[in-house]
Amino acid sequence: MEKRLDKHKFENLDKESLVDWLKERDHDLIQLLHQKAYEVKVANIGNKVFLRGLIELSNKCVKNCLYCGIRCANTSVDRYELTDEQVFEAADFALYSRYGSLVLQAGERVDSAFRKRVTSLVKEIKRRTDNRLGITLSLGEQPEEVYREWFDAGAHRYLLRIESSNPDIYSKIHPNDSLHSFDTRLNSLEALKRIGYQTGTGVMIGLPGQTEENLADDLLFFKSFGVHMVGMGPYLKHSDTPLGQISSGTSSMEMPLKMISLLRLLMPKINIASTTALQVIDPFGREMGIMAGANIIMPNMTISEVRTNYQIYENKPGVKDDATVSKSKLEQNLSSKGIEIGWDEWGDSRAFKEKHEVNL
Ligand code: 5AD
Ligand code: SF4
Question: Which of 266, 187, 195 is nearest to 232 (CA)?
Fold first, then answer.
């Protein structure tokens, strides 16, 4: 196994060797892969985990993705929007909790009221926290000028998952209309990078019909696009969705963890999130993701009153908890595994920082 990894020099794993690894069934070899990825992480970016407190601003969404529980056609969801005060309280919580960064996430909306609201929320969070919190946005596809306005307001990272880098799979898991276009998704990612955001993307793992070859292509897509951050997680069933009615979702940690390790070997300096979806499969899923090479965790800070309404998939963990409970559970879990946290640090992607410094 060591020979096999050495042969490919980690950063140049080709498609064939990625597929081999994704098909590997030998438990010991897989453990060695995770260990190697962990070593590569520590050697390149250190062993700390950085936190981004997650604020689920609103579950209103104009889209109708076939897998997602808050798709607009799901009428059994109570739609909410946090008030400014609730958002600021969450931002204050992130500051006092020394999280270093927060993520503002919502379903997609492109109306100008929403655009303006986000601009003013970002500005106000920056002002009241004295620029001590890094702000990541995860608000879907937007016109380039909107991305620019939010960047100028002070957001400096943006997450927009490609969901699958394969256009055929993409078209099978989205409605067949112009609102759900693979090309628009790709163009949006390019715009984000052009503007200067630390740009994050990701895929779902275990989608119906998805092969190991497709997943290897996803990894190679991240590399060729030059992303700074990746968040990948298992595809999970939601019964109130068209995809959830025909598929059972992913129930094994094996493939998501292998994807994390292989990505760490391919891209040693990027930020890789250990996603909440991993925690659905195993209560220690996020910690396992960290041990496999990830370095980011996004503790949920959304007030408990609305958490149940942001169920993109079933059995989302911690929906009854509030921000304080989520925080103490996470700290307990991480410290029980000896994982160190980068308190009060923005935890920017080393891959982004180095590129940026060279360009100065
Ligand atoms: N299972 C797993 N992940 C999902 N997402 C949406 N629905 C599901 C699901 N059923 C993820 C998508 C999206 C992000 C907000 O949540 O990747 O980009
Ligand atoms: Fe909306 Fe995102 Fe869910 Fe699609 S995945 S329906 S864009 S919240």
Answer: 266
Distance from the CA of 338 to the center of ligand 2, in angstroms? 35
Task: Give me the domains of the chain, ranges plus CATH numbers.
Answer: 10-352 (3.20.20.70)
Q: Quick count: other Cβ atoms within 10 Å of Cβ 218?
A: 26
Rounded-to-integer distance, Cα 273 and Cα 50, Å: 9
What integer pLDDT is reported at residue 161 of this predicted model?
98
* Cβ count near 104 (within 10 Å): 24
> Distance from the CA of 62 to the center of ligand 2, in angstroms?
8
The closest-lying atom of ligand 1 relative to the alpha carbon of residue 68 is 7
Q: Which token pair is 58? A: 């609103």
Q: How far is the CA of 40 from the centre of ligand 2 (A)?
A: 33
Query: Closest ligand to 203 CA?
Result: 1
- The pLDDT value given to residue 296: 97
Residue nearest ligand 2's atom 6 by CA: 71
Give the Cα separation of 327 and 224 in Å (integer): 36
Ligand 2 center to 181 CA (angstroms): 13
Residues 6+ apart with CB under 8 A from 239: 245, 314
Cα 301 to averaged position of ligand 2 atoms, centre (Å): 20
SS3 category, 163: strand
Q: What is the mean pLDDT of each run of 10 residues along the chain (360 residues)?
A: 51 87 95 95 95 96 98 97 96 94 97 98 96 97 98 98 98 97 98 98 97 98 97 96 94 96 97 96 94 96 88 88 86 86 90 69
Q: Is 109 in the pocket of ligand 2 (CB under 6 A)?
A: no
- Element (DSSP H or E) covering residue 205: strand 204-205
Contact predicate 200/228, CB 8 Å: yes
Q: How far from 55 is each of 7, 243, 272, 336, CA to CA, in Å?
A: 43, 26, 19, 26
User: Mutation test of ligand 1: which of 109, 136, 204 has the most ligand atoms closer than 8 Å to its C-beta?
Assistant: 204
CB count within 10 Å of CB 152 equals: 12
Strand partners, 105: 56, 138
